[in-house]
Amino acid sequence: MGGIDSELIKDGWFRELSEKSFPGQGLALKVKKVLHHSKSEFQDILVFESATYGNVLVLDGIVQATERDEFAYQEMITHIAMFAHNHPRRVLVIGGGDGGVLREVIKHNCVETATLVEIDKTVINLALKYLPGMACAFGDSKVQVKLQDGFEFLRAAAISPDQKYDIIITDSSDPEGPAEAFFQKEYFELLHNALSEDGIVIAQASENVWLNLDYIRNLIDSAASVFPVAKYCYTTVPTYTSGQLGLVVCAKNPRANVHRAIRKPTAEEQSQLRYYNEQIHSAAFVLPTWAHHKIYKE
Ligand code: SAM
Q: Where would you find the membrane-spanning parts of this chain (predicted)?
């Protein structure tokens, strides 16, 4: 193991423990080598090489991405929104400093600009160094990076109708920390304002049905108080505590059918995807009975 001490690593195992977010349970990954540990202006940042999941990015003690399973998250949070839209040209990513979502966004030839608003430059720099498979799109000519708080960016932006975004992806960390504002009604109002009339928003929900159904229901209620379409779906990621992560999908157009791939992936597009396909797009919205009742009160 590398020589950097971290409170988060004991006896050669990284442990993700949070009584608030994951009461009574946790996740452990065997560490081969600590590659980086520091406190940036915004958060505690740990990068380590794991025994079986490749390099791992951890922010404030919570796993953000591992090289082995990151595609399950990046592909679903990106392509569910992108393929549910007829012709996404302007895409905004809030957070996403590891670059994985940008990598997925620019797989769509119809995209003209992809803007990423990340609060913490250190995350981008570390991704370029230790997660090159994720950070490979930062140099693309369609990509613009703004180092800024995403909430403030949206609050300050006077976006003219022709500058509105077709897709906005909130690829943030969890609510305890710099991403707290992304889980509240005011944020959904800012998203609504920044979105084109047929635009789609997708956001990581920070929770899953096994952890906190009340939280998910409140989040969907907040989203539904702003957007006529507000749905919950999920992806499976073994290195997120209890193995899955929820996504909230919203549309401005009440007739939008976000459950379906409106545009079918071409054979060339599909050949670049390892997790997403048309069938899993629709299946991701199908919930177990008890969770469906609780989230949608039906
Ligand atoms: N896939 C991850 C997950 O949910 O576990 C999230 C990806 S991680 C790259 C999230 C990024 O959001 C971090 O780089 C963090 O710095 C950034 N972030 C957090 N709060 C932010 C804010 N207020 N504005 C912009 N970016 C923010």
A: none
ipTM value? 0.97
Q: Smallest Cα–Cα separation from 168: which of 149, 148, 188, 183?
A: 188
- The answer to whether position 117 is within a domain reads yes
Residues 15 and 59 in one domain: yes
Q: Is the same domain home to 22 and 136?
A: no
**pLDDT tens across 75-100, in order?**
999 999 999 999 999 999 999 999 99
Please tell me the total count of domains within the chain.
2
What is the C-alpha end-to-end distance of the chain, expressed in Å? 51
Q: Are residues 143 and 208 in the same domain?
A: yes
d(CA 204, CA 225) in angstroms, rounded, equals 18
Q: Which two tokens stand for residue 139?
A: 């140099």
Higher pLDDT, 177 or 16: 16
Which listed residue (60, 69, 149, 171) is catalytic? 171
Task: Assess if residue 3 is contained within a domain.
Answer: no
Q: Kindly report the protein residue whose alpha carbon is nearest to atom 17 of ligand 1.
A: 95
